[in-house]
Design a protein that fits this description.
Elements: E1 7-9, H1 24-32, H2 35-42, E2 50-51, E3 65-73, H3 87-100, E4 109-113, H4 117-132, E5 139-147, E6 154-155, E7 162-163, H5 164-172, E8 178-184, E9 213-218, E10 226-229, E11 234-235, H6 236-248, E12 257-258, H7 259-274, E13 285-288
Parallel strand pairs: 3-4, 3-5, 5-8, 8-9
Antiparallel strand pairs: 1-10, 2-12, 6-7, 9-13, 10-11
Helix pairs in contact: 3-6, 6-7
């Protein structure tokens, strides 16, 4: 579906445009009253995942740390939904960055393209088994990436639904110190919306020590479409997230790109590049515990 500057990841309907108050000003205004509460969570953001250019040069990862990744790309959302163009290629590009810059060994990286919902469940189960078998590693980190169709209730590989609640339970059950979920799909912000929570501005960069917990990053708010661009040959969010991980997000110029820096870069670039598209402004969201 053609848009001015891109195409929306729609599911049989036009994307719902956010209200006028949902612009940057309104977003920051609504977020300001949560700033103090959010700061207690921000301390873990910077060191959840550190993406280092040294890994691209062949530097060995410390034996103490082992990272696993499941990367999923699905253009097919079922017969009633417009087929996406770039979900598969976005997933493949993400997997390459994880191996080249993100410290994920090829043997610990699982890429699944065009799965059925049952195949997706099997892949998640396989990932959990691999993580459980990571004996000898003092620290284990897990990353799940999905690019494809979704709605307000769950992921939609090949048109069948994997509920967000089921996904969260599966990720929370991973025996890992840190669990990261990145969803580049329409309405994926519903995954982060709990007890009336709303989308927020990017979290602050903060120095912190070794942390545990989870981070869920989504490309759009619960009521928004995630947009693709023919010009960049992919989705806005994944394109700018990967650009950030490759080095563009290194705001501190220390040769390392933290998860916080990467998300902040992707948030600002995605929002600014979609403000004038037919799909309207796209607001990435997050949930950190």
């Amino acid at each position: 579906m053609s848009l001015s500057g891109g195409s929306a990841r729609e599911y049989g309907r036009r994307p719902q445009l956010p209200p006028a108050a949902s612009g940057v000003g309104g977003l920051l205004s609504r977020a300001s009253d949560r700033a103090n509460a959010a700061l207690s969570l921000l301390v873990l953001a910077a060191s959840l995942l550190c993406w280092t250019p040294a890994a691209a040069a062949g530097a060995a990862e410390p034996v103490a740390l082992r990272r696993f990744a499941l990367v999923v790309g699905s253009n097919d959302g079922g017969p009633s939904r417009v087929r996406l163009r770039y979900a598969q290629s976005d997933a493949q590009a993400f997997a390459q960055v994880l191996e080249g810059w993100g410290g994920v060994a090829r043997a610990d990286r699982l890429v699944v393209l065009e799965p059925t919902v049952d195949r997706l469940r099997e892949a998640i189960f396989d990932l959990r088994g691999r993580v459980r078998g990571a004996s000898g590693a003092r620290r284990v980190e897990v990353l799940f990436y999905y690019s494809g169709h979704s709605d307000e209730e769950g992921l939609l590989p090949a048109g069948a639904r994997l509920p967000y609640q089921e996904l969260r339970r599966a990720i929370d059950a991973m025996p890992a110190d840190v669990r990261i979920v990145v969803l580049d799909s329409c309405s994926s912000g519903a995954l982060t919306r709990r007890k009336g929570g709303t989308r927020r501005a990017p979290f602050l960069v903060d120095e912190s020590g070794r942390v545990t917990g989870h981070a869920f990053l989504t490309s759009s708010a619960a009521e928004e479409a995630a947009q693709e661009s023919d010009r960049i040959g992919g989705s806005f969010f994944t394109h700018y997230l990967l650009s950030g991980l490759r080095g563009a997000a290194d705001a501190s110029r220390d040769g390392r790109v933290t998860l916080s820096e990467a998300y902040q870069f992707a948030f600002h670039e995605t929002l600014s590049r979609t403000e004038r598209t037919a799909g309207g402004p796209q607001h990435p969201a997050y949930d950190i515990q």
